[in-house]
Amino acid sequence: MIASGARYRRPEIENLDRFEATSVSYWATTIEATLCEGRDIVLVGGGNSAGQAAVFLAAHARQVHLAVRSSGLDASMSRYLIDRIKATPNIDLRVRTAVTGLSGTADGTLESIDMTCRESGDSHRVDARHMFLFIGADPNTQWLDRRITLDNKGFVTTSSDPQLPLATSSPGVFAIGDVRRGSVKRVAAGVGEGAAAVAQIHAYPRHPSFVVHSDSNGWNVRTLSQAGEAVEMPLTGRTRTSCSTCTSKPPPMAKLHEARRQQVGDRHRLRVPL
Ligand SMILES: Cc1cc2nc3c(=O)[nH]c(=O)nc-3n(C[C@H](O)[C@H](O)[C@H](O)COP(=O)(O)OP(=O)(O)OC[C@H]3O[C@@H](n4cnc5c(N)ncnc54)[C@H](O)[C@@H]3O)c2cc1C
């Protein structure tokens, strides 16, 4: 199970860490929206998540100052969001702009944010207590084998099979949480996916793509062949096809596993091709 998460990108702003506990957010929920009621806020980012957050927060904030590094939103944001931003009078889009300074109280409450145009060098100070950062995350997938399919940003892609939605391209390997493409980047979502993946792992040997056959010792094994990989599952059900006692009345599982362990050792344990 791959659960290596992602690193949220942080802009290089001096003393950012001083305000992170109180005034800087990497998401926007109704809790943050309530805190911003009637105030100016600064939001950094030009992607869809930034656009969605800007539109959402504009319903609460007095003014949303949207700072985008590039010269526009066309290359990074969906058209419907660009149109909604244009149609929202209290979103102030500032292109080619970066946050260059933060100042506030000794206890870490933000009071003002400096935004600088990268082209002209002109600076603009906004009195704001909240800053939102939506500049993406880098998945921790550098360590993975190439056989696990990743999307163009490096997140692990998971199956479209409704029975195994958390399965990766590699048989027997599952992915959950922030590292998974399309996951909701929240603690509760990661925990929920973890629980769901456990259920999928239990169901995995019964998946229709497994073929049950007898191995050279006469034991039934299940094999999944997918993307050129073969995975053999240990015997989990009953039987030795040539044994009438086993086929008619399965022996207790523990006995069966022990008998199999002695007979075939580790050769038929689940091989995960990582
Ligand atoms: C500043 C900040 C505040 C947040 N606040 C909230 C919040 O209030 N509420 C909320 O719901 N969500 C919040 N989130 C999002 C939340 O933290 C994530 O959605 C959640 O932690 C994802 O869980 P995960 O298990 O997928 O990944 P992570 O929690 O990132 O865990 C991944 C783990 O894998 C380890 N790892 C990485 N690479 C390897 C490797 N090669 N080998 C072994 N281990 C490895 C990492 O060290 C880490 O321990 C916040 C995120 C940030 C950055």
Number of strands: 13
Strand line-up of the largest beta sheet = 2-9-3-4-5
CATH class of the largest domain: Alpha Beta
Spatial gap, N to C terminus: 11 Å
Helix proportion = 10-25%
The helix tally amounts to 7
The CATH homology group name of the largest domain: FAD/NAD(P)-binding domain
Q: Which ranges are low-confidence, i.e. pLDDT below 50, for 5 or more consecutive residues?
A: 225-230, 234-251, 266-274
Can you tell me the CATH architecture of the largest domain?
3-Layer(bba) Sandwich
Mean pLDDT: 83
CATH topology of the largest domain: FAD/NAD(P)-binding domain
Largest sheet: 5 strands, parallel
| N-to-C series of helices and strands | EHEHEHEHEEEEEEHEEEHH
Class derived from helix and strand content: alpha/beta
Beta-strand content estimate: 15-25%
Number of domains: 3
Radius of gyration: 27 Å
**Distinct bound molecules:** flavin-adenine dinucleotide
- Shape descriptor reads elongated
Give structural notes.
With about 270 residues, this protein is of the alpha/beta class. The chain has three domains: about 10-135, 3-Layer(bba) Sandwich (FAD/NAD(P)-binding domain); about 140-205, no CATH class; about 210-265, no CATH class. It is built from seven helices and 13 strands. It has helices at about 15-20, 30-35, 50-60, 80-85, 185-205, 245-250, 255-265, and strands at about 5-10, 25, 40-45, 65, 90-95, 95-105, 110-115, 125, 130-135, 135-140, 210-215, 220-225, 230-235. The strands form four sheets. Strands 2-9-3-4-5 form a five-stranded parallel beta sheet, with helices on one face. The chain has a three-stranded antiparallel beta sheet with strand order 6-7-8, with no helix packed on it. A three-stranded antiparallel beta sheet has the order 11-12-13, with no helix packed on it. A hairpin with a 5-residue loop joins strand 7 and strand 8 (about 125). Residues about 225-230, about 235-250 and about 265-274 have low confidence and may be disordered. Flavin-adenine dinucleotide (FAD) binds near residues 3, 5, 26 and 185. Flavin-adenine dinucleotide binds near residues 3, 4 and 143.
